[in-house]
Structure formats: C-alpha cells, structure tokens
Amino acid sequence: xxxxxxxxxxxxxxxxxxxxxxxxxxxxxxxxxxxxxxxxxxxxxxxxxxxxxxxxxxxxxxxxxxxxxxxxxxxxxxxxxxxxxxx
Length: 87
What we know:
Blueprint: E1 3-12, E2 15-24, E3 30-39, H1 43-72
Antiparallel strand pairs: 1-2, 2-3
C-alpha cells in the first residue's frame, strides 16, 4: 500500500468538523490535508459532499504525483493507469 487516507470526525452541538489527510506510506510525507466545518442539519448530504470533495482531490493529487514521477524518470506519462482499469 503506497498511500493512506486518514481522518477524523468531531461533533459539537449542531456542528461537525471533518478532517482528512493523504499520506505517502513509504515516506510518511503528508501530500494533502483539509478540514471541513459544517452544520449537522443534513448529515447525509454533508457526507456525500465531503466524500466527493475528498475523492476528487485525492484523485487529482495522485494523478499529478504519478505523472510528475514518470516525467522525472524521463518516461512518457502515456502508460499511467487512472485506477479504474488497465492503462
């Protein structure tokens, strides 16, 4: 496993704070972190909103990192898999 997504959820009254961070498991380096503070009124809509934001951000960060890694090695990024099938 190369990357780890970790996070936490804290509640105070009708407010919720969700934190997420993407970590390179090989180096321990934090690639990305975000905090979301929201009202707890529509918890399912909140869950969908934050899950989508995290998924898009993580996907973007990983694609960028993989692409840059290939370029640093002098390789073309054409063979990069997007995680949804073969390259």
